[in-house]
Write a structure and sequence with these properties.
7-stranded parallel β-sheet; 627 residues; single chain; alpha/beta
Length: 627
């Protein structure tokens, strides 16, 4: 992998590398990255999807590597972590007046207000002593509601030269540090913002390594998804406040009230054809927001008065977001055919704490990535799961690399999968239905866990299924059974790892986030092939869009999604050289459906069986082995 990454950098050619758990892939891309940074006097950017990997790189891998290589290089390699501006405390906002951030519904819950108040006090005390202003230093963490009182987005920031606190700005200091080092560690969201935005966020660079690259499309999609609700409209109204004539602001407030009433009555889900009343409401929001923007006058007015400049910047930011999102939603319609449509709009029903909202997202981000990320630099993409169905083609198409200059390699795994693990597909069970877990599934789970003596990670397709299985089996099993949601996921995983007989059931974050080597994990149970929900607005729209262009929408979207998650889930089993165990997939479709070959080819080469006696016997042997 080191040689392949070095060659990609030398040849200015994009590279996708599948590297299994235990390969040492971070060292394999860091060594040639550091060499390039030294030779070119330009930093290399490493982008990850999770905070855990960022911390591993900055706290463990890079310090060790720098110490080891320092004697062989002109200087010891340097590195820094860079996050989005929202992650750093804004000194000016912490000390100056700022537009009201509280959302109205929280003002009426005394418990919410008092809890937020205590967090605000903690932040104020921490602000006096922190040297970095990095939110992640706050342990325990604080709510988004409290943190917003002390942070600004890039759009709201006055800029270092105009802000009274610019000379000691934490975000600017972090960016300055990043500009002086050899390796900058960041996340996919900031990488996307830097690539897609008009103003650079990251220091100038010509090589990017995208680790956890299987997450890239989802993270970029999240960054470019627009949201519109009565809350966002009312925030703009509050921020514009006394900066314009009241009747103009009142027009936007009335449009927001119309939107609130409309969203409260409309059914959630994808909106294929714009209802007339929704179109008129969006036009009203677009036009009234534009009147407010026009009434604000020049954007650089009051630039010599930081307080007023801050209020104006915050108002422009909120108004721009409302106006531009309404424009995007209106532009999503009116195309002659489905294949010409670029974006999808849907109604999210919200929660008890979050109102209903309209959302708009691109049907593909391939073009954006091709033009903005891959077009201007050399990119190395790596993960344990990139070759879906045995090839890189599926993800390459999603990245916009299908027709470009790139190579894909699988560097293998240090694990002997056929000797260390069994992939058991319960072919005899009925297909999973929509009415919860069938009794036969619960019986199968019980027998497998009893054979393993606990030591089981149960990965379920929904939280409802995980909780139902937990409630049904707690009385049937004589081993401890934990369920995601009983406590923080981090503490549950810790408890699971430290007590061998314990079992842990959960959903999506456990499919990708659990690293438990050793005898505490001998069995991974997957209840069903993890296809996206049929009513998921974005994936269903993407599926239909591919079909409209002559492709196989099911395979390109739903099957790829399922293959990626299955591979991630199966990857929980073997985390060290001594690990052994069983992956048990209860869904018979993995053995019988026409797409089963594609899914199986996306998984590590475990020894496969559909005979239920074989995994039970193997688990019993493992349970009686001396530790």
């Amino acid at each position: 992998m080191v040689r392949a990454v070095q060659k990609a950098i030398d040849d200015d050619e994009h590279l996708a590398v599948q590297a299994g758990t235990g390969t040492g892939k971070s060292l394999a891309y860091l060594v040639p990255s550091i060499r390039h940074a030294m030779d070119s006097d330009s930093p290399v950017v490493i982008s990850t999807a999770t905070i855990a990997l960022q911390r591993q790189l900055v706290d463990r891998d890079l310090p060790r590597l720098s110490a080891a290589l320092g004697k062989e290089l002109p200087h010891e390699p340097t590195f820094a972590i860079l996050k989005g501006r929202r992650n750093y405390l804004c000194r000016y906002k912490a000390t100056a007046g700022w537009p009201e951030e509280d959302e109205q519904h929280q003002l009426f819950d005394p418990r919410e207000v008092s809890a937020t108040g205590r967090m605000v006090q903690r932040i104020q005390e921490w602000a006096e002593e922190t040297e970095t202003g990095d939110r992640d230093e706050l342990v325990p963490g604080v709510s988004e509601q409290a943190w917003r009182q002390f942070s600004v987005s890039a759009q709201e920031c006055l800029g270092a030269t105009r802000c009274p606190s610019g000379a000691e700005c934490f975000a600017e200091m972090a960016r300055a540090r990043a500009g002086e080092v050899d390796v900058v560690v960041t996340n996919h969201a900031l990488l996307a913002i830097d690539a897609m935005g008009d103003l650079p966020v990251l220091p100038e660079h010509d090589v990017v390594v995208v680790d956890e690259a299987h997450e890239l499309v989802d993270r970029v999609t999240s960054v470019v998804t627009g949201e519109l609700s009565d809350t966002s409209v009312m925030l703009a109204v509050r921020r514009v406040g006394r900066l314009i004539d009241q009747p103009v602001a009142d027009q936007l407030m009335e449009a927001g009230e119309d939107l609130k009433a409309l969203l409260a009555a409309a059914p959630p889900g994808r909106i294929d054809d714009m209802p007339q009343v929704l179109g008129l409401t969006l036009q009203l929001i677009r036009d009234t927001a534009w009147r407010c923007i026009t009434a604000m006058g020049p954007r650089n007015a009051d630039k010599d008065d930081p307080d007023k400049a801050g209020q104006r910047k915050a108002a422009f930011t909120a108004l721009d977001e409302v106006h531009d999102t309404a424009v995007r939603m209106l532009d999503a319609y009116g195309h002659a055919s489905e294949s010409d449509r670029a974006e999808v709009v849907w109604l999210d029903s919200g929660t008890d704490r979050r109102p209903p909202s309209l959302r708009v997202a691109p049907l593909t981000v391939a073009g954006m990535l091709r033009d903005k990320l891959f077009g201007e630099r050399t990119v190395v993409l790596t993960s344990a799961t990139l070759a879906l169905g045995g090839t890189f083609d599926a993800l390459a198409a999603q990245w916009g690399l299908a027709d470009g200059k790139w190579q894909g390699i699988d560097v293998g795994s240090p694990f002997d999968h056929p000797r260390a693990g069994i992939l058991y597909v319960a072919k005899h069970l009925p297909q999973p239905g929509r009415d919860g877990l069938p009794q036969q599934y619960l019986d199968e789970i019980t027998e497998l866990i009893e054979a393993a003596g606990g030591r089981t990670l149960g990965l379920f397709s929904s939280m409802r299924a995980a909780k139902a299985a937990t409630e049904a089996l707690r009385d049937r099993l004589d081993v401890p059974l934990l369920c995601q949601g009983d406590d923080s996921t981090m503490l549950l995983v810790k408890q699971f790892a430290e007590d061998e007989p314990t079992c842990l059931f959960g959903t999506l974050s456990l499919w990708q986030g659990v690293d438990v080597p050793g005898p505490s994990l001998r069995l991974v149970i997957i209840d069903r092939v993890p296809f996206p929900r049929p009513d998921d607005p974005l994936t269903s729209a993407r599926q239909r869009h591919v079909a409209a262009r002559g492709g196989n929408g099911f395979m390109a979207v739903a099957a790829n999604h399922a293959a990626l998650l299955l591979a991630q889930g199966a990857g929980r089993l073997l985390r060290s050289q001594d690990d052994k165990g069983v992956i048990a997939v209860l869904d018979p479709r993995l053995a019988t459906a026409r797409y089963s070959g594609f899914l199986l080819n996306s998984l590590p080469p475990f020894w496969r069986t559909t005979d239920p006696a074989i995994p039970r016997a193997a688990l019993k042997r493992l349970a009686t082995e001396a530790p």
